[in-house]
Each structure stands twice: as structure tokens, then as C-alpha cells.
Amino acid sequence: MALLRRSRSAGSDSAGAPEQNPDDTPRRSPGDKAPPRRERRRTPWYVGLPVTLAAIVAFFLAGAHLGLFPSIPNPLERRTVDRSQPVLLRSIQDMKHFTGAQGNFQLVVDLDREAAFLPSALLGHRTLYVAAGTVDAYVDLAALEKGAVTVSGDRLSATVVVPHAQLAAPALDVGRSYVYLQQRGLFDRIGDFFSSNPGNQRQVEMLATQKIEQAAKDTELARRAEQSTRSMLEGLLRSAGFTTVTVTTAP
After folding, report:
1. CB neighbours of 231 closer than 8 A, spacing ≥ 6?
2. What is the pLDDT of residues 62-101, one digit of tens each?
3. What domain range is 236 assigned to?
4. What is the pTM of this model?
């Protein structure tokens, strides 16, 4: 009987003892609370919405600009609207000049404005301007002196003395003139940004006009105009019935 009691007590002791965890990790009882889990933060859906919309808009704008969507109008297409006022006629003048010759000129204006003690990268302005213009040479027939035209009694001979030819003001051809190169320093770029006339193109145009005018004076443009005027008057008087026509230039 004593042996049976000992075996039961030993069995009950072994049954009530907790089992050992081989890795020595303590086990939680059913009443213990589980440790809180770290939740992964998710980016809200509305944060990426502007980026997505911007990408979609950029895609459609690029496609419309490149012509990938013919049915969609290009919102970046520019149009030219002419809002000019009607042309006003100020005056009409009778011209008594005969243009006997015209000279066509072209030159490259190299205008460089630089500072004395600063490099051109900071303060300097260089412009290469290709200028094209014309100069007319004319004879003022209204300036004929009294007795400049003499006609013989039989109306077969005529003598005309015309004044010397003059040069008109140069006319710059804006269609063939353009700025070829423009280099500006840092301070000049800042100044041109706030200026109403960036680049000061008016200055190079005036310089080109002066150079064309001086070049016209150094040519035989006036002499060619006098020769052309004499030929015109001779042909005109011969067609009027004069057989002998003499046209000279006033001394």
C-alpha cells in the first residue's frame, strides 16, 4: 500500500510540473496580453494624386504638341493677332526728282562697348549686325535754272543744262538686316532685363546707316545718276521730234 501511494504521488508531481522549453523561451499564459505590434505607416492615397494628374496632363500636352492626337486641339499652339490701327495718310508731295541710279550696300557692324577696368564677362556688350540698305541718286529737275532749256527756231535742236545729282538718305532694309551675334556681360543682361529696348539695336542701326551713307559718297553713284538722267532726257526730246539734243551738267 505504501509503495502504491508513493508511485501515485510521484506521478501527480510529475504531471503538475511545467514542461521545460528547450530554447528557454518563457511561454505566455492564456491570461497574458500580447505585446503591441508595430504597424507599417502607409502613404495616404491623396499625396500622390497631384503627381499623377500632372504626369497625365503633361502626357496629353506633349502628344497634342507632337500631333499624336489629331482630334485634340493643341493648347500650346500660338496664334498671331494683328491689332494695328488703320494707316493714316499724313500728306502727299509731288516728286520732281528723277532717280537715275540706286546703290545696294551690305556691311557687318561690329559694335563693342567694354569697360576700362572690368572684364567683358561682367560689363561689356558686343553686337555683330548684318546691315543691308540702299541709297538713291537723283537729279532735281525742279531746280533747273532760268534759261536751262533752249530750243532752236526750227524746233529741231534742244539744249538742256541739268543740275548735279544728289544722294538721298540711306534706306535700311529691315527684311535683310539682322543681328548675327550678341554677347553681353552679367550687368548688361540685368540692365537689358529692365530696359524697354534690350540690346540697344537702334544704336547699331543708326551706325549702319551712317556707314552706308559714307560708302555711297565714295562711289560713282552720283555720276551714274547724271548719265542716266542725260540719257532719259535725250530719249524724251527725240521722241518729241527734236533731231539734235544736247544735255549737259551745270558747272
Report:
1. none
2. 766 666 666 656 555 677 888 888 989 888 887 788 999 9
3. 98-249
4. 0.59
